[in-house]
Design brief:
Elements: H1 2-20, H2 24-35, H3 41-48, H4 68-78, E1 80-82, E2 86-91, E3 100-102, E4 108-110, E5 116-121, E6 128-133, E7 139-146, E8 157-163, E9 168-176, E10 186-191, E11 198-203, E12 206-208, E13 213-217, E14 221-227, E15 230-232, E16 239-242, E17 249-255, E18 258-260, E19 268-283, E20 286-289, E21 291-303, E22 306-309, E23 316-319, E24 323-328, E25 331-334, E26 343-346, E27 355-359, E28 362-365, E29 373-376, E30 380-384, E31 387-390, E32 394-399, E33 405-411, E34 414-418, E35 420-425, E36 427-433, E37 436-440, E38 443-445, E39 451-455, E40 461-462
Parallel strand pairs: 1-4, 2-5, 3-6, 4-7, 5-7, 6-8, 7-9, 8-10, 9-11, 9-12, 10-13, 11-14, 12-15, 13-16, 14-17, 15-18, 16-19, 17-19, 18-20, 19-21, 20-22, 21-23, 21-24, 22-25, 23-26, 24-27, 25-28, 26-29, 27-30, 28-31, 29-32, 30-33, 31-34, 32-35, 33-36, 34-37, 35-38, 36-39, 38-40
The structure holds calcium ion.
């Protein structure tokens, strides 16, 4: 029996050796496997299996020789590439974009995890794209995409661009730009047209030093889910949706991401702006350091997030004609003495806020300069079951400025710490029920509302009917 087992083992070894040692590359791989104690052998063997139709025999890591032609040739001929661990060098080809292209339907480029590094070299002067996806159903997965060594940075330097392609999957990527203050482009950029839409799932990626943005969303993007990602030290915005030209876009889900900016400069982590941008869900994210900004967005749900604004600006800013906005179940904090509100909604260039509902939030503001909540010129405001605390002179100010606000409903809120908890002015109808001031001043009416109903409130009121 021992003899048979030994024979079988010898045959297995011989078979593996025959497969692996068929050429110089096999020897190289065997040496590499032998020297790589930290990576599980089974996973490594699978990644480097030369019988894998997606294996690229002439892309060799760690030798600083250009692997771009070999990888692109395999992508073009086979539609797929699978790379083992190591650093692969990708030089910029002369006279063309991009460095690599995923062109055919279902094309895939996969590594073996973050230890598979595509290192982009050379200058990014002029337009530069690392990997451009133009084929539908493409997969880009399990790689580090390192553009940090580009010698000249250009604001149109995008590590990955999805250009007019649908159902792209981008997952397991570690994306890196040169560190600030060098201005670059986006780590991932999405660009479509009405006749050539973009859709994508971007999940479980890590973004470092992306500048301008972690993810730049341009026009023609419909059906985008961004989930489970971590953004760290993005130069401009972690997610920046700006519908350029006459573009439209919408149907965005942004959930369970972490946005972290330790600089304390404030500003905006995620911005959604443009013409007819609509249907946005921003849920269960942690935003540490900066805020969220919506500009001309309709039908947005901002729920379940923890947002800490540590600098200038709002935790949630609603600018211009935002409508049908729900802010619910969030913990929203400002830990900053710079100007700003925790929630600010304002008119801008004749664009007026529509219906805004703020429910079931915990809101805390350490700033002294502006109210914790400021809402200007909205059509209707619903403020229910929020806990609002701070030390500014005003807790919440709701006022019709460009136009009279038709309706304010404030039910079951508590305020703590403000000299005046709620100030209302130029409102058509007001319904105030069951509000409580635990500490500080109560309600003050500016211009008297046309219709005023108040009951069961635990506060002092001044200037009201
Ligand atoms: Ca190489």
């Amino acid at each position: 029996m021992a003899f048979l087992e030994g024979l079988a083992r010898t045959m297995r070894t011989a078979k593996i050796s025959h497969t692996l040692l068929g050429g110089f590359h096999g020897w190289f791989l065997l040496l590499w496997v032998a020297c790589s104690g930290s990576t599980p052998g089974r996973k490594l063997a699978a990644a480097l299996d030369p019988t894998d139709p997606c294996w690229v025999s002439n892309a060799l890591p760690n030798d600083r020789m250009d692997d771009r032609p070999a990888i692109q040739e395999a992508l073009t001929n086979n539609g797929c590439v699978r790379l083992g661990p190591g650093r692969y060098t990708l030089a910029r080809p002369s006279g063309r974009l991009p460095v690599l292209g995923l062109i055919s339907r279902g094309a895939s480029l996969r590594g073996s995890g973050p230890a598979t590094v595509l290192e982009f070299t050379g200058s990014s002067a002029g337009d530069w794209r690392g990997i451009q996806i133009t084929g539908d159903d493409a997969v880009l997965a399990d790689l580090s995409l390192d553009a940090s060594q580009l010698s000249i940075a250009d604001e149109q330097s995008h590590v990955v661009e999805v250009l007019g392609a649908e159902r792209a999957l981008l997952t397991g990527l570690h994306l890196r730009h040169p560190a600030r203050p060098v201005p670059n482009g986006d780590c991932i950029r999405l660009l479509g047209e009405e006749t050539n839409k973009v859709s994508a799932l971007i999940t479980n990626n890590y973004f470092l030093d992306c500048d301008r943005s972690g993810i730049g969303i341009q026009r023609g993007v419909y059906g985008l889910r961004i989930s489970g990602n971590t953004f760290y030290k993005s130069g401009d915005q972690d997610i920046d949706m700006e519908m350029t030209g006459t573009g439209r876009g919408g149907d965005l889900i942004i959930a369970q991401n972490i946005f972290r900016n330790p600089a304390g400069n404030g500003g905006i982590a995620a911005a959604f702006a443009g013409i007819s941008a609509h249907r946005l869900i921003f849920a269960d994210n942690i935003v540490d350091g900066r805020g969220l900004n919506l500009y001309n967005v309709t039908q947005a749900k901002i729920t379940g997030n923890l947002i800490i604004q540590r600098g200038l600006g709002s935790a949630i800013g609603l600018v211009k004609a935002n409508d049908d906005i729900l802010i619910s179940g969030n913990t929203l904090l400002r830990e900053s003495d710079k100007p700003g509100s925790v929630i600010a909604a304002s008119h801008h260039n004749a664009g007026l806020p529509g219906i805004i509902r703020i429910t079931d939030n915990t809101i805390r503001d350490t700033g002294l300069q502006e109210p914790a909540i400021t809402i200007q010129s909205a059509l209707e405001v619903y403020l229910t079951n929020n806990r609002i605390s701070g030390q500014a002179s005003t807790g919440t100010r709701i006022s019709g400025i460009i136009r009279e606000t038709a309706l304010v409903v404030a039910h079951s809120n508590t305020w703590r710490g403000f000299a005046t908890s709620l100030v209302i002015g130029n409102i058509g109808s007001v319904s105030l029920i069951g509000n409580t001031v635990l500490e500080g001043g109560g309600l003050r009416c500016g211009t008297k509302p046309v219709k005023f109903m108040a009951s069961a409130n635990a506060w002092t009121a001044s200037g009201c009917p």
